[in-house]
Amino acid sequence: MRSWLVGLAIAAGCLIASWALLVLLARRLPPGILRDLAAFIPDCVTTVRRLRKDPRVPRRAKVAIVVAGLWVASPIDLIPEFLPVIGPLDDIVVVALALRYAGRRVPREVLLGAWPGDPKLLERLLGKAEGRGSD
């Protein structure tokens, strides 16, 4: 039993160390699409936390946003995280779909106010503001 716990602690330590290394390397990226993608998931987590507490966000949009946040936090993935480049792809797709869903139900200024990153990235994800019906 003790060796199993030691192995689990080592695995958790390696995972945390790899995340720290990825954050450090992402901060050293030059401005551009790679840096935007590296910051996408942390920006999404911050947005989920902010929108979850906002009273202007409808319940269905909150549920979609919370499910996306739980998906990102979950250790179970469709594509394992340790695979370079494509590892976080399922997280990005789920969060992008949840944000698009919320974008149809939440006023755009609320979403943009909750987004800590470059607003251009969120605008690209949400699409054009005009022509959307209000649900």
What features would you describe in this structure?
The protein is mainly α and 135 residues long. Helix content is 70%, strand content 0%. It is built from 6 helices and no strands. Helix 3 packs antiparallel against helix 4. The radius of gyration is 17 Å and the shape is globular. The N and C termini lie far apart (54 Å). The C terminus is likely disordered.
Which range best describes the helical content: under 10%, 10-25%, 25-40%, 40-55%, 55-70% or over 70%? 55-70%
N- and C-termini, Cα separation: 54 Å
Shape: globular
Low-confidence stretches: 131-135
Largest sheet: none
Name the structural class: mainly alpha
**What amount of the residues lies in strands?**
under 5%
- H/E element order: HHHHHH
Total strand segments: 0
Roughly what is the average pLDDT, rounded to an integer? 79
Q: Evaluate the radius of gyration.
A: 17 Å
The number of helices is 6
